[in-house]
Amino acid sequence: MTSHASPLVRRNTGDATNYTPGLGSCGQTNTEADMVVAVHTPQCGKQISATYQGKTIKVKVVDTCPACAEGDLDLSPAAFGQWADASAYGPGRLHGVQWNYV
After folding, report:
1. Among candidates 78, 82, 70, 83, which has minimal Cα distance to 19?
2. pTM of the model
3. Which end of the chain has fewer CB within 10 Å, C or N?
4. Is residue 58 part of a domain?
5. Burial bucket for residue 45 (CB in 10 Å: 0-12, 13-18, 19+)
6. pLDDT, position 84
7. What's the domain range around 86?
8. Into how many domains does the chain fold?
9. What string of H, E and C letters represents the secondary structure of 8-41?
10. Per-residue model confidence as pLDDT tens digits over 11-65
11. What value does the CA radius of gyration of the chain take, rounded to a whole number of Å?
């Protein structure tokens, strides 16, 4: 009998904040309307699946966020707005976001 184990997926948990994208450290220019993210360490072009309070979004890594803690996500307004109204929360910070690279 053979068993087929599924690959382990590393789940990260951290805070989500929002920022205004522009020319990112990955060399790509993005706008507030793009579903993009900046992370602590360079991961240019990788896709992330992130979940907060049962709602999942997908974003592309286009920038780094040296001020972010490892595990935190700095989202464009379009991405952050899928979970919360950034204008209602000022700079906006959501705790307990779970995410992984896909």
Report:
1. 78
2. 0.86
3. N
4. yes
5. exposed
6. 87
7. 12-101
8. 1
9. CCCCEEEEEEECCCCECCCCCECCCCCCEEEECC
10. 999 999 999 999 999 999 999 999 999 999 989 999 999 999 999 999 999 999 9
11. 14
**Residue 61, in any domain of the structure:** yes
Q: What is the CATH number of the domain that holds 89?
A: 2.40.40.10
Residues 6+ apart with CB under 8 A from 83: 16, 52, 53, 55, 57, 94
Higher per-residue confidence, 1 vs 75: 75
- Please state the rounded mean pLDDT for residues 68-80: 95
Residue 85 lies in a domain: yes
State the residue for tokens 């040296």: 66
The burial class, CB within 10 Å (0-12 / 13-18 / 19+), for 44 is middle
Please check whether residue 31 lies inside any domain of the structure.
yes
Residue with tokens 């793009």: 34
